[in-house]
Design brief:
Strand content: 25-35%
CATH architecture: 2-Layer Sandwich
Oligomer: single chain
Low-confidence stretches: none
Strand order of the largest sheet: 3-4-2-1-5
Radius of gyration: 14 Å
Number of helices: 2
CATH class: Alpha Beta
Helix content: 25-40%
């Protein structure tokens, strides 16, 4: 099962971590993994185009991704961009989890 963890602090999302494989299909043909990967890549490409590098960091490996957001390093305008991109990926991943609950689990952790 693919697990996506959303970590929040002070009402803001500070980290997204994905672990594992969905197991919906064969490696390279798993539409659940592909959908989550496409959302992550889209958000990362958007971050690279719209925000300064100090606003975020990310790590991508086979079966694992980590995306972190640093609100204290940017102004309010850029914080709003971060929040918008986070809502987009959150809505997308939640929608996939609703359609494929046996293959994708979403966890929310609040500090």
């Amino acid at each position: 099962m693919l697990v996506v963890v959303f970590r929040k602090k002070d009402k803001d999302l500070h980290e997204i971590e994905t672990k594992g494989h969905a197991g919906f299909g064969f490696k390279g043909r798993d539409i659940v993994c592909a959908a989550v990967s496409a959302l992550l890549e889209t958000v990362i490409f958007s971050l690279e185009k719209e925000l300064p590098r100090e606003a975020y960091s990310y790590s991508l490996r086979n079966g694992y991704a980590n995306l972190r957001f640093f609100y204290g390093r940017v102004g309010e305008k850029d914080r709003e961009k971060l929040r918008l991109l986070q809502r987009v990926i959150g809505y997308g991943i939640e929608g996939i989890a609703q359609r494929y609950p046996n293959f994708l689990r979403v966890v929310e952790e609040v500090e």
